[in-house]
């Protein structure tokens, strides 16, 4: 559960519930949310979401802090079991670069649909994909030191997960949230606890060659996905834009080579790293610990090249 009260519980004001500055229009079925959920969460503000879940910012009456509520509809017992499995993976994880999970409860909406509500650390910044889009729209590049910091932080999060036998399997910019520009790996809905596994999972564009081929794979598949993100941060081109719709980036060797080449043309050191992360043979790819160590060593030079460290 969330941490014990730091202040005396404060009652919800009359009519408290969804809304507030920065909130988006409520999705269908959520209009009748009560002022207080689970007896302790109020001042809900809808942040966004799709068919697989809705995210809200909420204030806890127990400690007056703000949390993220991830509300996932569960129409069948199988769907409920799948979400509980994600929560079970998240529960023991404590790392600066992994979104923290505090607990969960059930809520039934106005249509009678049951939702599994996960109480998470609130990351009130953008995600990495949004930062890429904003940089591209403003016709500027992301700070080299910031890219290096994110890669180092994500790699260290992967090192932590892989040491625990967890393969994320859905690593992409949308699933790396930012809190004061600190990268936090999120969304463990497709994660598996296994030293090695097989089968499709996550976005096709970010699958590793071994995953796309249906072969057995391990944590190196997450390293491949990190390589995709690295090329995106440097070139400001998403890997999905480099291939035809429905095509797996890893299986288009010309597209992979072009992404690495463009990255190297902009930043030789990061391009060389991208080439290693996107090696088609997982045995030749560095593991997450090696990536984290390399980026830690490179950070001073990256910050100097950018002229200043990240804010």
From TrEMBL:
Its EC number is 2.7.11.1. Residues 1-29 are annotated as: Disordered. It catalyses: L-seryl-[protein] + ATP = O-phospho-L-seryl-[protein] + ADP + H(+); L-threonyl-[protein] + ATP = O-phospho-L-threonyl-[protein] + ADP + H(+). SMART domains: S_TKc (SM00220). It comes from the Eukaryota. The keyword Transferase applies. Keywords: ATP-binding, Kinase, Nucleotide-binding, Serine/threonine-protein kinase, Transferase. GO terms for molecular function: ATP binding; protein serine/threonine kinase activity. The keyword Transferase applies. Residues 41-302 form the Protein kinase domain. PROSITE patterns: PROTEIN_KINASE_ATP, PROTEIN_KINASE_DOM, PROTEIN_KINASE_ST. ATP binds at residue 70. InterPro entries: Kinase-like_dom_sf, NEK_Ser/Thr_kinase_NIMA, Prot_kinase_dom, Protein_kinase_ATP_BS, Ser/Thr_kinase_AS. Belongs to the protein kinase superfamily. This is non-specific serine/threonine protein kinase. It comes from Bicosoecida sp. CB-2014.
